[in-house]
Amino acid sequence: MIALTIGVILILFAVYSVLPVSWSLQWWPEVIQFLKGGVPILAVFIGLIAFFVGVADIKDKMEAKKEEAEEKEEAKKAEPGAGTT
Fold it and tell me: What percent of the chain has a predicted confidence (pLDDT) above 90?
């Protein structure tokens, strides 16, 4: 319940701070400046995370192929009559 109350208070403060009326803080231009500076930095962080996830995915696929090949090799060795012709 406390978290919900704090959340509502913070949302109301955010709305109050950017309203374009004389009785509010009128921070809308500052918010836009922050977003202009923050979006490229956020894009770099998201790009780095996506890069590392992609590398890990490629490694996992290579490992899965290697394990599958090993299982096929073991299955061939376990076949009765394999290798005796």
Answer: 81
